[in-house]
Amino acid sequence: MERTISIIFRYLLSFITPRARQLPGSPAQTLASDLIRLTAQPPRSWHFRVPPGLGLNKPLLDMLSLYGAIRCFYSGEKTRVHLNWATKTQHPWLEVLPLEVEEDIIPVNPDGSLSCFLPPLQTGRCSPYRQQKYFLTPQLAAWLVNRIWGFTSLRQGQYEILERLSQGKNTLAILPTGAGKSLCFQLPALLLPGITLVVSPLKSLMRDQYVNLVKNGILGADYIDSSKSPEEKEAVLGKLKAGDLKLLYLSPERLQIDSFQQQLAEAMAAHPVSLVAIDEAHCISEWGHDFRPSYLRLRHFLARMQNPTVCALTATASRYVRQDILTLLGLNYQDMITPDTLDRREISLQVRLMAPEEDYHSELLKMLDTEIPRVLDCSLEEIHTRGAGVIFTPYAAPRGRYTQPLGSEEVAHRLQETGLDCRHYHAQLPDALRIAIQDEFKNNGFPLLVATKGYGMGIDKENIDYIVHLSAPASLEAYYQEAGRAGRDGEHAHSIIIARPRQEKCLQVSASVLPGCCNGWQCEYTGGEKCSYGIQAGLLALEYPSEQEVLRSFTNFLCKLEDYARGGVLFRYVCPALQSSQQQKYLYYLEQLGAVRDYKVLEYRKVDTDQFDLLLEVELAACNSLENKHWLAGQVADRIEMYKAQKLNMLNTVHLYIKTDTCRRRFLMQYFGDSTHYQRCNFCDCDGITLEAAPKAVRAAGITRSLELLAEALNNQDLSRAITLAKRANSHEIADDITVRSMRELEDRPYNPAALYLAGIYACVNPDTRAIALRNLEGALAIALEDCPQLVPELFAGVPSPDVVNILAERYLGSLDTAALRQVAAALDPPDQYPRVHLTLMLPLLQQIIQVLKEVPSHDC
Fold first, then answer.
1. What is the pLDDT of residue 845?
2. CA 41/CA 106 separation, integer angstroms
3. Is residue 518 part of a domain?
4. Domain check: are 46 and 97 in the same one?
5. Which has the closest alpha carbon to 473: 487, 491, 455, 461?
6. Residues 736, 669: Cα–Cα separation, whole Å
7. Average pLDDT of adjacent 10-residue blocks, the chain of 861 residues
8. Domain coverage including residue 789
9. Going by DSSP bridges, is the β-strand pair 611-620/570-575 parallel, antiparallel, or unpaired?
10. How far apart are CA 139 and CA 131, in angstroms?
11. To pair with 186 at 20 to 30 A between CA atoms, which of 370, 374, 387, 818?
12. Is 530 part of any domain?
């Protein structure tokens, strides 16, 4: 253990004693070198004598404090030293005593060297030493963070995560944006004996964290991505093999390659993995807003690495995404740490809804010229002098008439024409240019970046003062993460969504799953640019094709697999680059259905600048496991339809958010199920943004019990409880909370009858949300008719809009028998408000009367 402590001591000294490092051969540098060698020996109570006037007293005490901290982390023991000058004990892990005896004294020479036996200086930054548990206290953690990064304190939730990881416990950490997630794995990475692998989904995110480490002087970190040449990748693996790396950033796509795993295992043969950090862990779940199929193979990799400690981190994750992360990584519910609140109180919130005749560019200029300066109380020039802004666009560089104005390149070009200093950023840029823009923006080389959503995931820049979303995003989770790029310095920042709302005619069409414009590039009603909803619906249609297309595509895929298998169970084939994501998902579905035992990526084969074919190896469960193509295709099509419905519900929730007239912060906190509750925050456009009134959370009387009843109804998918709750929740605020939380539930379980009913019961009154509400009520009614018809009368009676009731009656009452119809009619009073219901009830009687009249012989008068 002492040799390992000495290695970590040398490693930390190499970048947290800059003065000594700048003066090679100085007494302080020599003292550090000899002290490292001394600490590699079994511990004892050292006695140091330092001649006066050398200026080495403070450096020696400083180094001993660091050594004591590391030794305390490894052993839990206090270090005792004797010094020949009077000084106070500064830390619980270091006890300083006066030099009272003349035996075993270690003299410090004028050149800083120690006059005692010293073993050879060890090389490398890693050790093969293994230990199940380490010892970390809040005070020790705070001191180390201050010593290494200069932070004055830990943020909420950080210590709990650090403590778990120091005890070798797997952890899923849910922390809000700007809460310091990266520190939670970087500090253990520096202290633990082995290597920490960090799985990161984006090249920009990997490089950003790497640059931050280098900027802080932290050595022993590197990354491998497609922008590096083969020689550079080999050099990184060489450093890994030599034990010179403590942190290595990798993409999940690279980590799933079998040949790379072998290279990695060989390189780390002498230096095992101490920790695997999985950043943006929500990407592992298809329920999440940034699903990446390559994340699904991480558990196989962890098993190959002998299951090291895992730290999975994300900023936002619903209940089902969290459960997915735990299941797919082999973690337990007890391994999860959640924050007290996800609220970012320093960010004010605003939505600007555009009229049909307005265009995005003009509206963006208004926001930049007047609105943002007004809210932040200083001119745009002053904002750009001290800080920066980010504009998110839905497209990168399209060339279509209706899409080009919302591409990041076009928006940046137009802003540059007005004299603003800005750049564009998206994943399609050449690596060298993309890296240069990222670094220049990071280092305040220019104040305004126009980017696609790839920049919104985990990029850390402290002085971003405003975020603009040019068109509403695909989900509130994505929006909140991207808006969270702002305000990381704790100062007031502003977030604006500029959105074009749906046309009234489009809103009235509720039966179709996606709007008619989803397969085109312009609005089918105006003939011009699509609304924000239509833009995201179009992207959703590209990701999730129709059920017929899925059945055809998946059946063709099964036929190809059979051809490759040739009657066997183990085979290899090359997957084209453009189909790799889809085919990996298909293989995962087949594995879940029991038709495929295992599959893995053997290697990537480069076919273009940024495109790679995949060589895959597939093992079938049996020679005939793909025979029942009809059943397999049906199962996969049903699953994809469910995911499509979930993503559509995400879009519907965003639509509710941009159209709400109540407190936006309250809406967001209810959406995330946050314990923080607002009557109004005074920090959004609905309440009026008042700089003097900082957001304050207030627990409204009676709200707690209603939300508890709501949770019970949603968790149990209990339509009866939902109907009872709807009768009790008679205030406007509680109704809004129930609607938002129910919409969030539908993003996880699109066919939950309680959520469908509650998401529609209040929203149907508002014309802007009636189409969504009607679609949800139709879903609840369809389930009730099949599973619990006795609730149908109550369901109808609870709908506050007679117009909506009459529409439902016209569509569904034909499914009820006469007795049930009477019950529905009796529940709806007065009859003149519900003519379709009563006419439907009378129709069988009228038909009987007509039949009788037909049977009575006519008599001529």
1. 60
2. 14
3. no
4. yes
5. 455
6. 12
7. 89 68 69 89 84 85 92 91 81 87 84 88 83 91 92 90 95 88 94 94 86 88 88 91 93 89 85 92 83 88 90 87 91 91 91 90 96 94 94 92 92 96 91 88 94 73 94 93 89 95 76 72 85 91 90 96 93 90 93 94 79 89 94 95 90 92 91 81 87 54 71 90 81 79 89 92 82 87 89 86 81 73 72 68 64 65 45
8. 712-731+746-861
9. antiparallel
10. 22
11. 387
12. no
Half-sphere exposure of 541 (CA within 13 A, CB side): 17
In-domain check, residue 248: yes
Evaluate whether 106 touches 49 at the Cβ level (below 8 Å): yes
Pair 633, 774 in one domain? no
Place of tokens 């007795």: 819
If asked whether residues 18 and 101 sit together in one domain, one would say yes
CA distance 146 to 166: 18
* Half-sphere exposure (Cβ direction) of 380: Cα atoms closer than 13 Å: 14
Q: Tokens 């004693």 label which residue?
A: 17
Alpha carbon 741 to chain centroid, angstroms: 19
94 and 194 co-located in one domain: no
Give the span between the Cα atoms of 387 and 380, in whole angstroms.
10
Residues 765 and 815 in one domain: yes
Rounded to two decimals, what is the model's pTM?
A: 0.85
The first and second tokens of residue 491, run together, are 């100062």
Rounded-to-integer distance, Cα 147 and Cα 141, Å: 10
ω into 830 cis (within 30 of 0): yes
Q: Which two tokens stand for residue 269?
A: 């043969």
- Give the chain's domain count: 5
Q: What is the rounded distance in angstroms from the CA atom of residue 787 to the CA atom of residue 781? A: 10
In the chain, count H helices and then E strands.
Answer: 34, 20
Cα angle: 82, vertex 87, 90; to 5 degrees? 95
Distance CA 446, CA 443 (A): 8
Say if residue 260 is in the same domain as residue 179.
yes
**How open is the CA angle 99-100-103, to the nearest 5 degrees?**
90
Q: Report the C-alpha gap between 351 and 373 in whole angstroms.
A: 16
CB neighbours of 68 closer than 8 A, spacing ≥ 6?
Answer: 78, 79, 91, 93, 94
Let me know whether 256 and 331 are in one domain. Answer: yes
To which residue do tokens 């990537």 refer?
604
Q: Are 151 and 266 part of one and the same domain?
A: yes
